[in-house]
């Protein structure tokens, strides 16, 4: 009965009707929003001719000496990398020249965004080199799709969608929301990072890469960077090690194991801010904190947890580890259940003791989980601990007189948030920090995929 | 065909039904404030006044809301909404955001849009309150909820130390002496004194010494370009923090600006003296009863007997945003003056503990014997009344004041936690703050 075409047709229609009803409901209740979104998109589209003429006017007024380096770099990157990528296919001269042209064109995207300011004669060395890198990266933006096109599989081998129109119709909602909530804000952030602006005042001044250069020279930002790296290392190491240990214990066959597991996962259900508030209640000074209250009643001494730079860092680390531990335990428990018992049994028969079995069989088999958790934990340590820091230390205690060397727990994401949303704070610099933070995370993730994943064994 | 005709008829009917409403469409204005927390009666007090106003002015609808209980979030949110053309008509703005609000260009100065009669009624304001919200001679907003710091102390611990609980210390030196006695008592508290590490108290102590926080008359004749953190007056304050900390008399929760945490520490009897806002008087009194503390309330201590210039005013004021129709602006101004008139000023004080801002309401409250029953409030009001209305206790206004205040906090933290000398810490703080002011002024310009 269930497999009958009639049932299938009924089922499909029910789903279709459900989708239509839901969409209609969304459309009606959020009508104003859709109207505004439509108006906004339309305004953007209808401004396109004007923008094009602006761009034309910009290039008409641009000194050739300022334009030339970006064209040359784009051309060189286009020809050089196309040759390198397509080496084995022995690319024709035309392929290389098209690559060069695409590179030169694509290099203009970010160069024009920067108003070619890094190619001004009087620019500082750091900004000039930064400009080269950005131009080269910009050249890649159209080169990568070009290479993918050159390397595409023949039509006979590739899967394809019969009805192209339908495929794009299905893609539209995703593309639209990606555009509205991801691409557009990203472009805005890049533009903002090239301006000096004080939130929430609208006046802004174009400063080229000035925000990036002053961040690189800022002692407070440097210390924030080092602090973030140290705290990340500690959080990731501790949270993975402890989670693995706890997961092994929680996987033992004991009565009520599922209850223990639920309790172990529970801290992850709390947001970082709540975690911070809980740990604040524990570590506060002046006997308002539980731990100091116990220390004073028991030993007559109290420790200034949040007022000593190193201790404050450890409190942040412990709170964050506690917060994310449940997430790691969840994955490790799942992973441990996937370890085939016959392998362990065979090893036991061969005379391997428990630690040997764990390190030679279980741990390597868990490596896909460890790899996944490594990436998510690094991301959490970079982005997720804002709430913990905000509730516990607000980035303090200051290091050096009046904090000229930064704050002991002033991690990058906290500094970024403060600079973006404190009234009167430099939001242009905050945008630059957001870009740097993004590059860090993207770079770390790429690095992990390249060098760590090669050691990962995925099960069949 | 039939259907469309039916639709036309229906539409016409609707239009007819709606049109009389259109003919006398009310003027709708909105106001945002921070008193929206659950169990916060203060929002209800404002609502009651709004209801009264709407009853008297049937053509006006006031929509009150509280999108955030945090001044900074409220300000940011309202200004971002203004960017989208959806600004609330009236915004409650914290005192520290004054210059930024002026520079943002989102607001109409009250002095430009209020009637002669309304402005004349402001002569009734306490001078120190009125001065805070005037910049370059223009009154930008109408003060609403005013507060200042007070000293709270535990009388039992004073008795135990052989001190007279009815004559609490009034200067830095007297506090050091009192603390020496308190910590020498047989069962001393874990520290003599605690208070939030914040910029607000040092700002008071600078004003009391008739000194300035920033140049250009505290940023009031032109934008501030430099702070005076290295002045002898500020150094005197820094030295006192250091003396208190070195002797083990001072403690704090480890989190700056933790008014609540410091209040808890004091109310759990771990310290003998604390400083907090007048806005906390009612809470201190209520929890002292529960905790069995004989609570003493005294004016904010001064740096010395010579520091007699008085305190500055804290709290928030009401601002009218630009971009409304003339009718909306008019209604907003009228409502602000209605909300802050003598009658409502008195009710607001009695309901919330914020200081009354009008001389006439203080006089009426005094006559009714209110201050005799509530000595804590009497102290706060008396403290503000003694303030000479001059540029020092008008307080400093700076665009990036949140950042500059943060740096002062870090300078003080590095004195009490980092072991830096006050001179080094305050000089380094000045260096950081001046760089920020220079950068702000370069961007915001004229």
Question: What does this entry show, briefly?
Answer:
The complex is a heterodimer of chains A (460) and B (446). Chain A has 460 residues and is an all-alpha fold.
Would you kindly provide a written description of the structure presented here, covering whatever features stand out?
The complex is a heterodimer of chains A (about 450) and B (about 450). Chain A is mostly helical and about 450 residues long. Among the domains of chain A are: about 1-45; about 215-455, MetI-like fold. Chain A is built from 19 helices and two strands. In chain A, strands 1-2 form a two-stranded antiparallel ribbon. In chain A, helix 13 (about 310-335) runs antiparallel to helix 16. The longest helix of chain A has about 30 residues, at about 220-250. The mean pLDDT of chain A is about 85. With about 450 residues, chain B is of the alpha/beta class. Chain B has two domains: about 25-145 and about 315-385, 3-Layer(aba) Sandwich (D-Maltodextrin-Binding Protein, domain 2); about 150-310 and about 400-445, D-Maltodextrin-Binding Protein, domain 2. In chain B, the strands form three sheets. In chain B, strands 1, 2, 3, 4, 7 and 13 form a six-stranded mixed β-sheet that branches. In chain B, a hairpin with a 2-residue loop joins strand 5 and strand 6. The longest helix of chain B has 23 residues, at about 420-445. Chain B is globular.
């Amino acid at each position: 009965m269930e497999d009958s075409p009639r049932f299938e047709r009924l089922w499909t229609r029910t789903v279709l009707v459900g989708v239509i009803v839901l969409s209609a409901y969304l459309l009606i209740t959020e009508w104003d929003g859709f109207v505004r979104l439509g108006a906004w998109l339309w305004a953007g589209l209808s401004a396109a001719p004007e923008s094009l003429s602006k761009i034309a006017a910009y290039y008409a007024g641009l000194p050739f000496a300022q334009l030339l380096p970006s064209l040359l770099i784009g051309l060189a990157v286009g020809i050089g990398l196309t040759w390198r990528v397509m080496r084995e296919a022995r690319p024709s001269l035309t392929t290389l020249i098209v690559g060069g042209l695409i590179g030169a064109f694509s290099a203009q995207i970010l160069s024009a965004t920067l108003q070619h300011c890094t190619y001004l004669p009087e620019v500082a060395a750091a900004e000039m080199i930064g400009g080269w890198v950005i131009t080269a990266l910009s050249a890649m933006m159209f080169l990568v799709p070009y290479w993918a096109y050159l390397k595409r599989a023949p039509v006979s081998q590739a899967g394809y969608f019969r009805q192209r129109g339908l495929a794009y119709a299905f893609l539209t909602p995703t593309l639209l929301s990606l555009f509205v909530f991801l691409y557009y804000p990203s472009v805005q952030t890049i533009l903002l990072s090239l301006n000096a602006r004080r939130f929430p005042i609208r006046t802004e001044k174009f400063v080229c890469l000035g925000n990036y250069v002053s961040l690189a020279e800022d002692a407070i930002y440097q210390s924030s960077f080092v602090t973030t790296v140290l705290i990340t290392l500690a959080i990731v190491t501790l949270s993975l090690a402890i989670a693995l240990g706890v997961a092994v214990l929680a996987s033992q066959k004991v009565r009520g194991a599922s209850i223990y597991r639920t309790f172990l996962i529970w801290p992850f259900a709390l947001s970082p801010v709540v975690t911070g508030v809980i740990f604040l209640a524990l570590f506060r000074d002046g006997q308002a904190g539980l731990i100091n209250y116990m220390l004073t009643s028991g030993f007559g001494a109290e420790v200034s947890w949040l007022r000593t730079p190193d201790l404050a860092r450890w409190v942040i680390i412990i709170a964050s580890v506690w917060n994310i531990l449940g997430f790691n335990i969840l994955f490790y428990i799942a992973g441990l259940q996937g370890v085939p018992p016959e392998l362990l049994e065979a090893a036991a028969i061969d005379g391997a003791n428990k630690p040997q079995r764990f390190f030679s069989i279980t741990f390597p088999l868990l490596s896909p989980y460890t790899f996944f958790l490594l990436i998510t934990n690094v991301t959490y340590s970079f982005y997720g601990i804002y709430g913990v820091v905000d509730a516990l230390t607000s980035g303090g205690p200051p290091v050096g007189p009046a904090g000229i060397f930064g704050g002991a727990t002033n991690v990058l994401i906290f500094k970024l948030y403060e600079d973006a949303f404190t009234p009167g704070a430099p939001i242009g610099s905050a945008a630059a920090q957001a870009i740097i933070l993004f590059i860090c995370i993207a770079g770390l993730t790429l690095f992990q995929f390249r060098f760590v994943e090669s050691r990962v064994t995925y099960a069949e | 065909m039939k259907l469309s005709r039916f639709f036309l008829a229906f539409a016409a009917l609707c239009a007819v039904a709606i049109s009389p409403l259109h003919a006398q469409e009310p003027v709708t204005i909105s106001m945002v404030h921070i008193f929206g927390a659950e169990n916060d009666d203060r929002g209800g007090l404002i609502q009651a006044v709004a209801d009264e106003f709407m009853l008297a002015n049937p053509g006006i609808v006031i929509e009150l809301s509280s999108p955030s209980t945090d001044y900074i979030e409220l300000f940011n949110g309202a200004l971002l909404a203004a960017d989208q053309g959806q600004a609330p008509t009236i915004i409650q703005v914290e005192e520290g955001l004054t210059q930024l609000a002026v520079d943002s260009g989102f607001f109409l100065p009250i002095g430009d849009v209020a009637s002669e009669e309304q402005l004349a009624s402001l002569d009734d304001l306490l001078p120190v309150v009125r001065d805070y919200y005037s910049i370059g001679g223009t009154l930008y907003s109408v003060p609403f909820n005013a507060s200042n710091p007070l000293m709270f102390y535990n009388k039992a611990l004073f008795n135990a130390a052989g001190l007279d609980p009815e004559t609490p210390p009034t200067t830095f030196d007297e506090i050091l002496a009192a603390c020496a006695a308190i910590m020498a008592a047989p069962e001393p508290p874990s520290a003599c004194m605690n208070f939030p590490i914040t910029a607000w108290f040092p700002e008071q102590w600078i004003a009391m010494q008739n000194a300035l926080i920033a140049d250009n008359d505290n940023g009031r004749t032109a934008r501030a370009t430099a702070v005076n953190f290295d002045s002898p007056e500020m150094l005197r304050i820094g030295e006192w923090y250091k003396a208190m900390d070195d002797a083990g008399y001072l403690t704090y929760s480890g989190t700056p600006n933790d008014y609540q945490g410091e209040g808890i520490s004091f109310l759990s009897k771990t310290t003998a003296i604390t400083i907090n806002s007048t806005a906390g008087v009612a809470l201190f009194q209520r929890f002292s009863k529960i905790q069995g503390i004989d609570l003493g309330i005294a004016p904010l201590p001064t740096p010395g007997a010579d520091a007699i210039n008085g305190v500055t005013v804290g709290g928030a004021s009401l601002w009218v945003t630009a971009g409304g129709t003339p009718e909306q602006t008019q209604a907003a101004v009228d409502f602000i003056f209605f909300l802050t008139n003598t009658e409502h000023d008195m009710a607001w004080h009695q309901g919330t503990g914020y200081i009354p801002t009008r001389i006439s309401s203080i006089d009426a409250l005094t006559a009714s014997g209110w201050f005799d029953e509530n000595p804590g409030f009497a102290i706060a009001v008396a403290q503000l009344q003694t303030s000479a209305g001059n540029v020092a206790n008008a307080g400093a206004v700076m665009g990036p004041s949140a950042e500059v205040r943060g740096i002062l906090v870090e300078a003080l933290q590095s004195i009490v936690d980092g072991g830096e000398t006050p001179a080094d810490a305050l000089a380094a703080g000045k260096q950081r703050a001046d760089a920020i002011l220079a950068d702000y002024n370069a961007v915001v310009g004229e």
